[in-house]
Specification:
Layout: E1 2-7, H1 10-27, E2 32-37, H2 47-54, E3 59-61, H3 63-70, E4 84-87, H4 92-102, E5 105-109, E6 120-125, H5 128-136, E7 144-146, H6 150-159, E8 176-179, H7 185-205, E9 211-214, H8 221-230, E10 241-246, E11 249-254, E12 261-265, H9 269-272, E13 275-280, H10 284-292, E14 296-301, H11 323-343, H12 348-353, E15 360-363, H13 367-379, H14 381-394, H15 401-413
Parallel strand pairs: 1-2, 1-4, 2-3, 4-5, 5-6, 6-7, 8-9, 8-13, 9-12, 13-14, 14-15
Antiparallel strand pairs: 10-11, 11-12
Helix pairs in contact: 1-6, 1-15, 6-10, 7-8, 7-13, 10-14
Length: 414
């Protein structure tokens, strides 16, 4: 079978593509799989490289090669035809363009639109809300199939060591804190230093607390070093630092607190289960942590809203001299207020549960404030234990989504 999958950012690749590709290859080791990465403002730029590492038997197309292909250029090594094209992240128009050039049947996971409703053979839905949303896009009920959230299998697979991107990674002693600052460029540039200062403050409150940074494999050491050297935007009150190496692996070291180091772990879900708590930001990682039953504190800082990446061309608004940053700040703050009024919560597990299972810290945040709140949460064993049970149960029905999708896809093409 020849299958082309279109994907975009790090969350979609880690949460959706990895578990599905694993399930597909388990069913058909001879599968001719093409992974096509489309342009995305949130992408790290390393998705294609990591895909080649994890799935060397697949043909991987990076965004620039895809653009040339989409505009009628060379095929970038893609086959003349495929049996199916599956959207696993990004705009549906990209999957439709690949379908137009390579043929086969057009499938989508989660997303649909009136424009392509008739061309879609099937849409695989995440949950019942997604089913209704797809119907409103003009897709008939018989074309929609619930399979669940692929990110759950992504988290479980990583926790089991199925998707190893780094040969060695230090372990977290039982009861420690894992800090996951994000993977987007703006997040690395500003939040790593913010969380470094938070970790330093926590060490003054809880000197014996093991603390590690979960840095995604999408982020290079060079990117991390540049971010730590600059210290982030001044409004984030971050700390300057550096990356150091030892026999135990890489670590982040504070430049203002000599000898204060925090180990770096890649493929963080492999060690997250040992942590008493995770400190992070909204994103796919929150769903993954929920699937593992790991309590988390989620930060939504609005210290410098104009640095946030948002959908569409407005993300570049801050590059306009003088007036641009002011306009983008106003737009981001207005959107955040609208989002909070509509959903009440920012972390997806909280939205899905309709309850604050993961404590959220919002607004203009300081490292000292975040450190104090995390210390309080770490001291509340009852709250964290209850949260762990409720988080694990929240997505229990979604386990096996990758196998269900792989089976359905192959059966429909047989």
């Amino acid at each position: 079978m020849r299958l082309a999958i279109t994907c975009n950012g790090p969350g979609e690749f880690a949460g959706w593509v990895r578990p599905l590709a694993y399930a597909l290859y388990a069913r058909d080791p001879e599968l001719d799989l093409s992974l096509i990465f489309t342009p995305d403002d949130y992408a790290s730029g390393r998705e294609a490289d990591l895909a080649r590492t994890l799935f060397p038997q697949a043909h991987v197309v990076n965004p620039s090669a895809y653009v040339r292909f989409a505009l009628g250029g060379d095929r970038a090594g893609l086959p003349d035809r495929v049996d199916a094209v599956l959207l696993l992240g990004g705009d549906l128009m990209h999957a439709a363009r690949v379908h137009a050039r390579l043929g086969g049947r057009l499938y989508s996971y989660k997303f649909a639109s009136h424009r392509f409703a008739k061309r879609l053979v099937r849409v695989f839905a995440v949950d019942e809300k997604n089913v209704e949303a797809v119907k409103r896009c003009g897709v008939t009920a018989e074309k929609i199939e619930w399979i669940g959230n692929l990110a759950i299998d992504g988290a479980l697979g990583e926790a089991e060591g199925r998707f190893v991107s780094c040969a060695s990674s230090p372990a977290i002693p039982e009861g420690g804190l894992l800090i996951m600052p994000g993977v987007r460029r703006a997040e690395i540039a500003n939040l790593v230093s913010f969380f470094l200062q938070t970790a330093v403050r926590l060490r003054t409150i809880l000197p014996d607390l093991p603390i590690a940074f979960g840095i995604a494999p999408f982020t290079t050491r060079e990117q991390l070093e540049r971010a730590l050297e600059g210290g982030g935007d001044w409004r984030m009150w971050g700390a300057r630092g550096r990356v150091v190496s030892s026999s135990g692996g890489e670590a982040i070291e504070s430049l203002t607190h000599e000898g204060m180091r925090f180990p770096i772990v890649r493929d963080a879900m492999r060690v997250a289960r040992a942590a008493a708590c995770v400190l992070t930001i909204p994103g796919t990682k929150c769903i993954e942590l929920a699937a593992l039953g790991v309590p988390a504190v989620v930060c939504i800082p609005t210290n410098a809203p104009e640095l946030v990446a948002i959908n569409g061309p407005l993300t570049y608004l801050d590059r306009i001299p003088k007036i641009g940053p002011v306009l983008k700040r106003a737009i981001v703050l207005r959107y955040a207020a609208h989002f909070e009024a509509r959903f009440r919560y920012f972390a997806q597990p909280n939205i899905d549960a309709g309850a604050m299972l993961m404590p959220e810290l919002r607004g203009t945040l300081t490292p000292g404030y975040v450190a104090a709140r995390v210390a309080e949460y770490l001291a509340d064993d009852v709250a964290r234990t209850l949260a762990a049970h409720r988080l694990r149960a929240l997505y229990a029905d979604h386990v096996g989504a990758s196998e269900r999708l792989a089976r359905s896809l192959m059966e429909s093409l047989s």
